[in-house]
């Protein structure tokens, strides 16, 4: 078989779940062998069965398995892999891991370690963006990190102000200050949380943008000097800084602002010496061609929400990652890229919105994905899978495409209603409430919407299964499962042939 992936012959995927399965599919098309890694909790996971080979990392806790860079690199070398794809999360944005891969003679499918370092420090990235002419939120990053210096910076920036840690993400350590008297306590809390979570208490201050949208630009660069953007994703539907629904195009962007944001993202990537797939996140203030945008941060990896870009632009981003990592030029040019239609992604989590979004764990008794034109599901589970307490409880991503935003929204609602999961509670009823909300229909969502309205949506989504379904499930749980005869054993070849690995 001729491989289109250039110099990559065998790839280890340093991840689990749906993203591992997604990468395996891209590798098959390119003729690249795949190596899965797994913890004891994932020994029977879908991604392990789907890969050509699999290597055990260790016990279930992530620090003893997926976050242990030494074990992952040893697994890659033992399996004869020549490249490593980190997916997202875990080690994907750890510069030391990218550097260790390079030192071990492994191709790291991602940016160079030095680019990860440049953009990993929010203070450093902010300075770099200012030098590159990329708009940033008005603010200050004092070299003097004393309370007096930071309080003075807050006063100069003006109220309301936002205190932010230089390291980390996910909203941890961010504090809003609306009056001078509140600044000392907010600084102490922000520094305490940043130090505990990231081991770095460095802080900076920005003017708080009230009710902004979160809009990000996908960028891609190769080793031949080519840098392009692949337009925007709207990610304002987020709860406590965690995205829940993403879409493309962004309904609030006019043509001139869209073009300006794309050019700013390309300038950011060039300033960072970037290579491979990355995302520049921006805050958007206002809408249409009068909107203003500000650089927020750069995610130096593939994003969870990359499929909405793939649907609207018509590209395969994972395939492009593998080609670029192998030294080939980008498989597209800026002039060849355009947007068509509208795509929406819903993250399906095993969690109970009615109980404060408590993560759920346990076996999945029934799992049936929706099907139909314009419907795509990226998942890492199946019937019989067990949702572990050790990892993020995302089960799947539902991605739909339509010729218009409204047709995509209606298609997403229909697909969610056909998405059947029994055994663990999911956020599917909550997603339905969100997609039916008048503000979502009107595309009037800002980043604080779910923090203001989420509790009401969760209460409205609390529902029980129909009595007949509950009775059937109770009966299923009451009756011990019959042991299948040899003739009726699982017909899935990934199960029946699990001991056969080339």
Q: Indicate the percent of residues in helices.
A: 25-40%
Strand order of the largest sheet: 14-13-10-11-12-15-22-20
The helix-and-strand class reads alpha+beta
Query: What would you report as the Rg, rounded to the nearest angstrom?
Result: 23 Å
The 3D shape can be described as: globular
What is the total tally of β strands? 23
Quaternary organisation of the protein chains: single chain
Total helical segments:
17
Largest sheet: 8 strands, antiparallel
Average per-residue pLDDT, rounded, comes to: 92
Map the helices and strands.
Elements: E1 10-13, H1 17-30, E2 33-39, H2 46-50, E3 53-58, H3 69-78, E4 83-85, H4 95-103, E5 107-108, H5 113-120, H6 122-132, E6 139-140, H7 147-157, E7 161-165, E8 175-177, H8 183-198, E9 203-207, E10 213-221, E11 227-239, E12 242-248, H9 255-272, E13 276-285, E14 292-299, H10 306-313, H11 317-325, E15 342-349, E16 351-352, E17 358-359, E18 362-363, E19 366-368, E20 375-379, E21 386-387, E22 394-402, H12 405-417, E23 420-422, H13 428-435, H14 438-441, H15 449-461, H16 467-478, H17 493-496
Parallel strand pairs: 1-2, 1-4, 2-3, 4-5
Antiparallel strand pairs: 6-9, 7-8, 7-9, 10-11, 10-13, 11-12, 12-15, 13-14, 15-22, 16-17, 18-21, 19-23, 20-22
Helix pairs in contact: 4-5, 6-9, 7-8, 12-13, 13-15
Word description of this protein:
- The structure is a single chain.
- The chain has 502 residues and is an alpha+beta fold.
- Helix content is 34%, strand content 24%.
- The chain is built from 17 helices and 23 strands.
- The protein has helices spanning 17-30, 46-50, 69-78, 95-103, 113-120, 122-132, 147-157, 183-198, 255-272, 306-313, 317-325, 405-417, 428-435, 438-441, 449-461, 467-478, 493-496, and strands at residues 10-13, 33-39, 53-58, 83-85, 107-108, 139-140, 161-165, 175-177, 203-207, 213-221, 227-239, 242-248, 276-285, 292-299, 342-349, 351-352, 358-359, 362-363, 366-368, 375-379, 386-387, 394-402, 420-422.
- The protein has an 8-stranded antiparallel sheet, with helices on both faces.
- The protein is globular, with a radius of gyration of 23 Å.
- The model is unreliable at 481-502 (pLDDT under 50).
């Amino acid at each position: 078989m001729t491989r289109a992936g250039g110099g990559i012959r065998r790839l280890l995927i340093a991840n689990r779940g749906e993203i591992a399965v997604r990468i395996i599919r891209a590798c098959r098309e390119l003729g690249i062998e795949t190596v899965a890694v797994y913890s004891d909790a994932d020994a029977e996971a879908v991604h392990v069965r789907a890969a050509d080979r699999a290597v055990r990392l260790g016990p279930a806790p992530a620090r003893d398995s997926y976050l242990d860079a030494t074990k992952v690199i040893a697994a890659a070398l033992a399996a004869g892999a020549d490249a490593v794809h980190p997916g997202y999360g875990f080690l994907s944005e750890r510069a030391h891991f990218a550097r260790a891969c390079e030192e071990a003679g492994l191709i790291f499918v991602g940016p160079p370690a030095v680019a990860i370092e440049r953009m990993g420090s929010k203070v450093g990235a902010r300075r770099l963006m200012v030098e590159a002419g990329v708009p940033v939120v008005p603010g200050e990053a004092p070299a003097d990190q004393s309370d007096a210096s930071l309080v003075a910076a807050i006063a100069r920036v003006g109220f309301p102000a936002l205190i932010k840690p230089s390291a980390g993400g996910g909203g941890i350590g961010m504090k809003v200050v609306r009056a001078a008297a509140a600044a000392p306590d907010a600084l102490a809390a922000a520094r305490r949380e940043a130090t505990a979570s990231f081991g770095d208490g460095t802080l900076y201050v920005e003017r708080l943008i009230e009710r902004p949208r979160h809009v990000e630009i996908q960028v891609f660069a190769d080793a031949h000097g080519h840098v392009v953007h692949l337009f925007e994703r709207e990610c304002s539907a987020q709860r406590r800084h965690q995205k829940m629904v993403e879409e493309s195009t962004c309904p609030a962007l006019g043509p001139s602002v869209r073009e300006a944001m794309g050019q700013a993202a390309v300038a950011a990537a060039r300033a960072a010496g970037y290579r491979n797939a990355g995302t520049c996140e921006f805050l958007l203030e206002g809408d249409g061609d009068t909107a203003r945008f500000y650089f927020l941060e750069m995610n130096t990896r593939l994003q969870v929400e990359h499929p909405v870009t793939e649907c609207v632009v018509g590209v395969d981003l994972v395939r492009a990652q593998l080609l670029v990592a192998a030294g080939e030029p980008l498989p597209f040019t800026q002039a060849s890229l355009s947007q068509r239609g509208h795509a929406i992604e819903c993250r399906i989590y095993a969690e109970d919105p009615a109980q404060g979004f408590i993560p759920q764990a346990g076996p999945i008794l029934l799992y049936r994905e929706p099907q139909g034109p314009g419907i795509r599901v990226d998942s890492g589970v199946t019937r019989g899978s067990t949702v572990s307490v050790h990892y993020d409880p995302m089960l799947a991503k539902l991605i739909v495409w339509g010729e218009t935003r409204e047709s995509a929204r209606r298609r997403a609602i229909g697909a969610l209603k056909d998405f059947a999961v029994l055994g663990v509670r999911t956020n599917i009823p909550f997603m339905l409430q969100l997609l039916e909300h008048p503000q979502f229909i009107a595309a009037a969502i800002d980043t604080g919407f779910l923090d203001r309205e989420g509790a009401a949506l969760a209460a409205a989504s609390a529902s029980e299964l129909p009595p007949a379904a509950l009775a059937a499930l109770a009966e299923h749980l009451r009756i011990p499962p019959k042991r299948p005869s040899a003739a009726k054993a699982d017909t899935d070849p990934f199960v029946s042939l699990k001991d056969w690995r080339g």
